[in-house]
Amino acid sequence: TIVPKTNRNIKLGQASSLSHVDKLKINRLYQCAVKDD
């Protein structure tokens, strides 16, 4: 389970995986480098 650092009420993901937008938000939140898939 992935839980956001700042707002735990934000829902992440879909039924089976994270969406592209979720991945971007997580990368931005944790200041990760962005890679093209």
From TrEMBL:
Keywords associated with the record: Hydrolase, Protease
Superkingdom as given in the UniProt entry: Eukaryota
Segments forming domain Peptidase M12A: 1-33
Coiled-coil ranges (or none): none
GO molecular function, one term: metalloendopeptidase activity
GO biological process assignments: proteolysis
Gene3D superfamilies per record: Collagenase (Catalytic Domain) (3.40.390.10)
Keyword Protease carried by entry: yes
Keyword Protease: yes
Listed name of the protein: Astacin like metallo-protease
